[in-house]
Amino acid sequence: MKTLVLGGGVVGVTTAYFLAQAGHEVTLLEEKDGLGLEASAGNAGIIAPGHSFAWASPRAPAMLLRSLRGAETPIRVRLAPDPHLYLWGIRFLRECTATRARRNTLVKLRLCQYSQRVMNELVRTEGLEYEAIAKGALYLYRNRAELEAGVKKMALLAEHGQKQEVLDASEVAKLDPVFEPVKTKIAGAIRDLGDSSGDSRLFTERRVASRPPSPGSTSSGWSAGRASATGCVSPRRRSSPATTGAGRRATSTTSFASPATCFPTPSTTIGESTARACAR
Ligand SMILES: Cc1cc2nc3c(=O)[nH]c(=O)nc-3n(C[C@H](O)[C@H](O)[C@H](O)COP(=O)(O)OP(=O)(O)OC[C@H]3O[C@@H](n4cnc5c(N)ncnc54)[C@H](O)[C@@H]3O)c2cc1C
Description:
- This protein has ten helices and nine strands.
- The protein is of the alpha+beta class.
- The chain has a domain at 1-43 and 203-249.
- The chain has a four-stranded antiparallel β-sheet with strand order 5-6-4-9, sandwiched between helices.
- Helix 8 (200-209) packs across helix 9 (225-231).
- The longest helix is centred in the middle third of the chain and has 29 residues, at 98-126.
- The termini are far apart.
- Mean pLDDT is 80; it is low at 213-261.
- The chain binds flavin-adenine dinucleotide (FAD).
- Residues 6-12, 29-32, 37-40, 42-46, 200, 234-235, 252, 254 line the site of flavin-adenine dinucleotide.
């Protein structure tokens, strides 16, 4: 079947890869001059089943209210004259009960764990180098009460397969010296050992460069590397798109609504900026 994938970020490229591997003739359209230059270049690169908590939780309505009053909150909404926003808002609020939040979190966790397994298998078979670090991620807490609440909350993920350890501030600093100067400003951290990180732009670029066989076909397969990436053109430019073969699925999904700050271990530029944030 002829299939068109719109957008050459990590999701589009991976989808194209898996589709073509399943025997489809895949065309990938990207409007920028290269692949993976948008969110896939700007994301934090954290592959975090340990961060699977559903955004719609019993805490979310109060957070939304504070956000509407102008407070700095993880979830922010700007009201607009858009009926779809309000319909979506009603559906979101209906999911904010403790029972639904738990159910949705476990669905997300299963998806994240599955995606991570698929991604690891893909990386292994293709030998992709994308500056991967598989040493877990730290979820930092500023005070004892938040840390204790975090431990209780994270227990749900631990019960469903995530390996975790609780560290006090000194143990955090020992694990990652970037936190030594600010260890008095944090109560500790939960380390999820199953989380990992890497460079999502490199992953996207190198996925294109790899040439997995396409079953039963010699005509489809990735056209090689960066040249083909820049050959993927915008429909607005009215030239022919680069046709690729082979595609796979999205890498990992994660949410960013936890009160804790998440970053990969050991320190990266993210770790350093997190340490600076802790100092405030
Ligand atoms: C600040 C930030 C941090 C994040 N950190 C993480 C993280 O640590 N871990 C994580 O898993 N996720 C993270 N995310 C989520 C992240 O966005 C996704 O992980 C992932 O990068 C999304 O990939 P994508 O391919 O869907 O989007 P993109 O990488 O944005 O790709 C979409 C592509 O579509 C192209 N496009 C758009 N319109 C058209 C058109 N009409 N025609 C042709 N091409 C078009 C764009 O140019 C772009 O290249 C983060 C997001 C943000 C904003």
